[in-house]
Model the fold of this input.
Amino acid sequence: MTTQPIKTVAPKPAPVWRHHHILDVDDFSREEIELVFNTTQAMKEVLSRPIKRVPALRGKTLITLFYEPSTRTRLSFELAAKNLGADAASLSAPASSVTKGESLIDTVSTLQALGADIIVMRHPHSGAPYIAAQYVKASIINAGDGWHAHPTQALLDLYTIQEHKESLKGLKAVIIGDILHSRVARSNIWGLTTMGAEVTLCGPPTLLPTELGEQNHHLPPTNIEHDIERALDGADVVMTLRLQLERQQSGLLPSIREYVQLYQLTEARLSLARPDALVLHPGPVNEDIEIASAVAHGPQSVINEQVSNGVAVRMALLYILAGSQKQ
Amino acid sequence: MNQTLLIKGGRIIDPSQKIDETGSLLVAEGKIAWLGKGEATPPKTDYEVLDAQGLVVCPGLIDLHCHLRQPGYEEKETIASGTKAAARGGFTTICCMPNTNPPLDNQTAIEYIKAKAAAEAVVRVLAIGCISKGRKGQELAEMGEMAAAGAVAFSDDGEPVLSSHIMRQALDYSRAFDLPVIDHCEDTALTEGGQMNEGVVSARLGLRGIPNAAEDIIVARDLALAQLTGGRLHIAHATTEGAVELIRRAKEKGVRVTAEVTPHHLTLTEERVIGYNTNAKVNPPLRTERDIEALIQGLNDNTIDIIATDHAPHTEGDKLCEFALAPFGISGLETALGSLMGLVHKKQLSLATLIAKLTHEPAKILGAKQGKLGTLAVGAPADVTIFDPNLEWVVDTKDFASKGKNTPLVGEKLKGRVIATIYQGKVVYKDKTIKLKQR
Done:
């Protein structure tokens, strides 16, 4: 391959890095997140070249194992792997096959036997990658487990915010929507608070566990606010979450219509936030449900940047992990 | 063959006779033949001697709630393996729940358990029959015939009796046999898909929670129905502060209710689930410190009558999976006494209370029909448990007699260990350190 090596200040997988797997950001230190930021910066430089490739992971094999449908996350990982010269393959297991007798442990062991160095896994059940990680030597990257965590999404969100805001420290971040069922929210709570931001969670009480706002040693401190206008007051970062339309059938919401009235991020509501507030959404967006189209495509939206940063952040994580595997 | 055995110089604790002093116990022809205090020696002369110095000697423990999985789930446990586990845990009488396959919902099924136990069990097995046919909660099972065949109680355990109508009829109908109806109290509309206690840990782990209210609601309903019918209600595995308070108030009003709590709900909290530990997945779920405090207080003021293990063995494969797919249950017979002794060492429970809750009190619930159980009175079956209250040991599931290795206590150090278990005069378990001496 006729490519140049990575030339920016080469973030050698430094001693700050302690992870063989990436399961959540709850055990990431500030220094580790900064290492991811710096490495991502280098990867963005690679991506700006005419030939967006470096051979840093040549000979490594990454397999994506998705038990749930996904478009951007899976593609993002596969592109990230290819950009670094790794071989990428994928296995789709429909959610319906997640039953007893179809052992997750057997499946990941098989992928390892097939030569996987890194297994990127998405699973409908919280904690599944933790079980897998106990039984394989390959690195497991959690690409979303149930309601629990989506660490690479959180890291790309953090990276996108800090690109615009220099630092996350002291920022007021508001996460709006179905927090109860959101792995994106959970991981972002950890990431944002670790980086010094103040987090407010906003949504109807049925979609927002009160425990998240209680002082305890299991979760970082957050504020809970059921009124979207009060929540948005003075915000630097506004993150809206996808609303699953079946929440109405399960009795958690009277109607989607009422949700739109009470919790949609509209231009008028966004004007209560700081004028330079950023609007994020993990995608895919239900336009005009949780967020007005005008806001999703408006000047404060960084939704598309999130997607492109996703590739760079995942390249950075693969690069760091591969480096730590050598040691 | 029944031995003649002198258990010499132990601390004899028998709450049924309010005894707690050093003494010796002679076991002959399967019965308690003589009990002597202090240095007294028995009238007979031809016996083996078990030196019980420094050990506690108490009536054989009784477990009103365990799962032996036979028939139907023999890969998880059998009457043979489950009773060996009971003997290692100091239990000489265990009552097996009817959620087998097929369920124990008729006289023939009860006869099967009796026949299997007569052939293969090393301790006494008493069967609990279903409340409803097929455990479906729709029609009463034939309680009368099951009672005649030897069923000691009725329960659809594993499932609550959701229909208030059926629960009312069960409590009413069972009065004819004076046997308790045991309910697993869970409002399933609130627990569907639930994986663990609802609270801060479930919020963190992203697991669907099981709120305390799901238990409290059915406990409250059942107490009202017990009051309405005058039937005997027994609450299985109480776990919440609210349930304790409801039972306490009902007892004050004279409702015929008894209640049990498990060793794991008394000693472990929801935090055990962290890391998605499927061996800590149990229903009802492990709760919080606050609930534990209420449960211990309930034991001490007799709101909660007994401790029962809810021994629920599963294979390793059953538990080796995603948290949401793992079955509920903890294998508990062999760690029960050791973990409960932790409460005694922490002075939260007296040794005499602990033993009463495992012997005399469950015997009272079983009633005189089963003979003199849970006592060291002369003439009673020689069911005796001998344990070292201070011996520390580390839980290693390789040592388990149970097929179920599913315990969150793996590798944990417990203080208090069963040294010997005697069932009807026969030593059915003894620690390798114990040597019987011919006098």
User: Anything to note?
Assistant: The interface with chain B takes residues 98-100, 103-105, 123, 125-128, 130-131, 145-149, 183, 186, 209, 211-212, 214, 216, 218-219 of chain A (CB under 8 Å).
